[in-house]
Here is the input.
Amino acid sequence: MDTHGRQDRPVLDVQDLVKTYGEGETAVHALAGVSLTVEAGDYVAIMGSSGSGKSTLMNILGCLDVPTSGTYRLDGVDVSELNESQLALVRNRRIGFVFQSFNLIARTSALANVELPLAYAGIGRVERRERALAALDMVGLANRADHDPNQLSGGQQQRVAVARALVSRPALLLADEPTGNLDSRSTRDVLGILDGLNAQGRTIVLITHEDEVAGHAHRTVRLVDGLIVADERRRAIDRQAVAA
Amino acid sequence: MSIFEIFGFALRGVAANKLRSGLTVLGILIGVAAVILLVAVGNGSAKQVEDSLAALGTNTLTVQGGRGGDTGYRTDLTLDIVKALQDRESAPDVKSVSPVVSTSQTLTFGDASYDVNAVIGTYPSYFSASNSVVAAGSAFTEEDVDQAARVVVLGPTTAAELFGTVDPVGQRVGIGGQIFSVIGVLAKKGSTGFNDPDDVAIAPLPAVQRALTGYGPVSSITIEAVSADAVAAAKAEITAILNTKMHVADGTSSTPYQIRDASQLLETRTATAETFTVLLGAVAGISLVVGGIGITNIMMVSVTERTREIGIRKALGAPRRVVLTQFLIEATLLSLAGGGSGVAAALIGANFEIVGIKPVIMPDSVVLALGVCVAIGLFFGSYPASRAAGLRPIDALRYE
Here is the structure.
């Protein structure tokens, strides 16, 4: 999905998002009214201690979970109004999700894992293979295409997961603590790839609790107890790259 | 995405977990094969009993002597009684009467010797009454009986045991030290499972009496009715004659003889065989239930175990329908592979004798076993998948 002609409209726009677990006295407000706008080409790090609601926010942004109240517009589309099969389409075409625990499908080759979103999108075998190989090449794992996940290191698995997230050319790349389970060298590899993707104009939102990781982003949003307490920008959005 | 793509996913899903798939297939295989084979064994034993009894002849009656009671008269079965029974006028429904003396003897031929089950002395009519067909050579004749000729017709088991590969017809054998000429060999009747009707030697009555048993009463009298329908009438006529001959008072409950009716025997044995089939059917039913629970278990576990995988697929944008179709196809493949190989295993197994019984496959049992097992496999393979596919992706992903 290209981003031409869409700079005027935010990729991601949430207003007053609330997520409550449980009911009555014992209710826990994981999100207590979060409003956030992310423009195309931005690189946002969401930070917060555990229990701050950052994972809940990420899951809602990834359409894996639904908010209790509030609106969520993705590329101008109100996601809360979509039905199950339209949501499947959104997850498939507009969002690339990278999990902390990689979540590759076991005993299935890296190539087949990366091809999966394309298969669900109904793309033909030949094009699928070409694009999946290109995505694996982009994360530097073209030579590991036929390896199963358990034959790859954690860093390599996460790079395969990144390839899988970006193969469908989504408007938004979401990463939930992508380096949380990785050693420092693999962390550098994965962040390097994300930096490169952003430099090419891809919009990225990632969760982390490490300042070093957040340092790669252009903008840092801090969550405490389900509310945004700080939102600071370090670098302007590279409009050049977005337009390219 | 096309159904072929989903089919490819399902195939990969099955192939990716060979051990799990193999165990599932094995579970279904055993369930299906056990049910089919058990029912086939029951059915086979019932068939066998029916066949062997039909071979004995359904229009024959056997009179056996018993305790004399206290009539004070001779109650042995004598040739005098045989003659009375042969009377056309008082017994119009009787076709033939064959007195039988039976004795266990050792047969010898050259250096070989063999203890035959029964040496039977009788009349030529016995061959037709007992459904004994002469396969090689010939039966003896009335003339042989009149001359007390020392000729013998051997059952196939006896002939094989004693002669091996040598052609018995025309050979001389020793029976209890007396020399008899073998003039014929009977065709095989098949075992009833309890004793072997093919293990006999049949000779003219006077020859057996003279050489082996002496001129006492006969052991039994085999009577052939003119037709199967006339058995009851013949039985009544025989009863009347025997009562007169043995001076049994009218209305006495205990008689010094017994008349056994082959069709009665047939009914009893068939009923027994049916009970056996019902029993085996119950065992098969239980094994179907147990097998079904096994299939349920392995399907539930293997699909529930993949709830996380379903969550991943949904997070990548798999529509619910596609996930469901994939798991339904996987369950179908496993169930059909298991069911098919179960039927194949049962068909192969049915070629072997199981505890002396040749199994006869009942088509109903194949349909039932296959249907139930495949239905269970399909339901419990797709129901947990449907449940998982209905979850929000995050709930499926968090599933442990």
In short: The first strand of chain A starts at residue 12 and ends at 21. Residues 1-6 of chain A have pLDDT under 50 and may be disordered. The CA atoms of residues 118 and 124 of chain A lie 8 Å apart. The beta strands of chain A are 12-21, 28-38, 43-47, 69-74, 77-78, 95-98, 172-176, 203-208, 219-224, 227-233.
